[in-house]
Amino acid sequence: MLRGAVKEIEQWLQDIRRDFHMYPELRFQEKRTAAKVAEYLEGFGLEVKTGVGGTGVVGLYRGNQPEGRTFALRADMDALPIQEENELPFSSRHPGVMHACGHDAHMAMVLGVARLLSESAELRERLKGKVKLIFQPGEEGGHGARQMISAGAMENPRVDVIVAAHVAPLLPVGTVGIYLREACASADSFEVRIVGKGAHAAYPHLSLDPVPAGAQIISGLQTLVSRNTDPGEGLVLSVTQVRAGTATNVIPDEMYLAGTIRALSPEIRQWALQRLEQVVQGVCQAHSLGAEISWGDGYPPMTNHQEVSSFIARVAAEMVGQERVRYRRPKFGSEDFGYFLSCAPGAGFDLGCANEEKGIRQMLHTCRFDLDEDVLGLGVELYLRLLEKYFADPSAACSA
Q: Alpha-carbon distance 82 to 91, whole Å?
């Protein structure tokens, strides 16, 4: 029943995905996008809240027993500051802005779920609870999930389980990627200003040279990963910017370093942040230099709840076959869906969107990213199957 119903709306799914793709909007500027989402949800008869955490939208579907549990689906809405180079009829109409991370597809899938829920009396009878559809702004560096949570998106009614699909160009279309626990790393940016005393390069003894200290700091930070942590823990530390000096015969007053720390657990993340400060301050003190350290607004790790991940894997295997369910290693990119997972059990998972025969294989966050639109129907069907299985027996389908 589900597959046939999804097949009937495939063209509609493509149309709305392409509409979102043509008119991408950057984080917290998703005004047209949010208005379109709200218009669709209201047309399907859902309860709708707008302006949640900025430009966020929340739709609520009440099944046959609205006093029951609440299962949430998250779709992100924002695009990236990238000039699209695809030559497609529906390429971005907004110069310098592109849906290069598949958020247009994520919205189409969740709207497809909303449409089929509204059109099927049979689904309404079987879903003994509520379905909350969360359309999130500001995923690309804006902490939009955190803002939606602060605005009450996970309450009234309180969410019991939350899931989110993400298109994945490293997997072929028709496959489902599962992260049992660790899915994405934390992300913290740092800036270090080493303050010394400049001098003529011919008279180095009259200076407090920040450059040798900076070199020692860079080398020392690398050992935090290579010599101070278990290789299995999952930690990346990269110094990505180094600036100092204005001329070859001048020792500079200051040196600037910047970079990123990625970790798969909160404990390792906190340890790395503390150790970076110790290394910087220790080296600078040894060289009689000053040190100023500043941190960006970092992201936490995204850690799935294994019971929910296993539940998704079982349902996906029933739908596409066990051989098309791929268990994946954690990624060191970040994803703010982790904020939602700190509020309720849940999991994020991947939907393969590559198709070598069609030449669709470009990576996310690139100017030629595209996806096989067959992924849209697959995502809608998997979401609906998860809802059916969960509401049929929440404790058996998922012990969360």
A: 12
Rounded CA-CA distance 166/144 in Å is: 16
Nearest one of 167, 267, 249, 148 to 204, comparing CA atoms: 249
What is the predicted pLDDT for the residue at 1? 77
Give pTM, 2 decimals.
Answer: 0.95
Catalytic residue, candidates 23, 40, 179, 299: 299
The verdict on whether 84 is a catalytic residue reads no
The yes-or-no verdict on residue 396 having pLDDT over 70 is no
Which of 122, 297, 116, 289 shows the shortest CA–CA distance to 195? 289
Q: Quick one: pLDDT at residue 399?
A: 61
Catalytic residue chosen out of the listed positions 139, 140, 254, 373: 373
Using CB atoms within 10 Å of the CB of residue 12, give its burial: 0 to 12 exposed, 13 to 18 middle, 19+ buried: middle
Decide: 353 and 130 in contact? Cβ < 8 Å: no
Is residue 160 very low, low, confident or very high in pLDDT (cuts 50, 70, 90)? very high
Is 339 catalytic? The answer is no
From CA 280, how far away is CA 289, in angstroms rounded? Answer: 10
Question: What's the one-letter identity of residue 72?
Answer: A
Indicate the pLDDT class of residue 393, thresholds 50, 70 and 90. confident
Site of tokens 């709306």: 9
